[in-house]
Design brief:
about 220 residues, Ubiquitin-activating_enz, alpha/beta, about 20% strand, about 30% helix
């Protein structure tokens, strides 16, 4: 290490200074640390978010590597524990890894849903809907080259109506869910959109409730 860098053992936010102040961040709970969730956590840590709780019950499989923040050396490890090491190594942030799926605990702050199952989404929504403790609910959905990211104010009637119109049982799902088919530029775009929606919300800006895109053609639907 060059001597002049010896003291630079922390993140330098000069480049984002006029874009986002980390002091505005709310506590974040990320439900699911797969292809999208792992990248959301990494991005949030790298913009200065330090209060990050992450739930996931799975370990890192070989097919996870190409679409996520995980490394080949993480194979077989619990996702949340591997992610905690990755984030700490790159940003110095100590996330709170919970090695199981969320099972109904009270949710507060900013909630990011990165799960595979529509039924699980429905269960999460029952704890978020009209919850004044949750300032924003972000739900990421990907399938092949399709991305949808919802940024919902759970106390806004129009947002609630929109989200519930797109909430259905897993048995009625038409598009494949995360993990069946995918490529990293799709999961990365979903993670970018989720992170951007969070920062917009924290800054008090207008946050569109839905972003949809067919990534291969770069055609934004909404």
């Amino acid at each position: 290490m060059r001597p002049e860098l010896a003291g630079e053992q922390h993140l330098n936010f000069d480049q984002q200074d006029k874009l986002f102040d980390p002091k505005l961040a709310r506590p974040v709970t990320v439900l699911g640390a797969g292809s999208v969730g792992s990248q959301v956590v990494q991005m949030l840590a790298q913009i200065g978010v330090t209060d990050l709780t992450v739930y996931d019950a799975d370990d890192v499989a070989s097919h996870n590597i190409c679409m996520s923040a995980f490394r080949i050396s993480d194979l077989g490890r619990w996702k949340v524990e591997a992610l905690a090491d990755i984030v700490a190594d790159k940003s110095g942030v100590q996330i709170k890894p919970i090695r199981r799926m969320w099972n109904g605990e009270t949710l507060r702050g900013s909630v990011v849903c990165c799960v595979d199952s529509m039924d699980v989404r429905g269960a999460i929504w029952t704890k978020v809907r009209q919850n004044p403790l949750v300032n924003i609910f972000v739900d990421t959905r990907i399938a092949k080259e399709f991305v949808a990211v919802y940024a919902i104010d759970p106390t806004n009637a129009d947002h609630v109506a929109l989200y519930e119109s797109r909430l259905y049982p897993s048995s009625e799902a038409v598009r494949p869910m995360c993990g069946e088919h995918g490529i990293i530029y799709v999961s990365s775009l979903a993670a970018c959109a989720a992170t951007a929606r969070l920062t917009q919300s924290w800054k008090g800006g207008t946050t569109p409730p839905l972003f949809e895109m067919l990534v291969g053609s770069l055609h934004q639907i909404t």
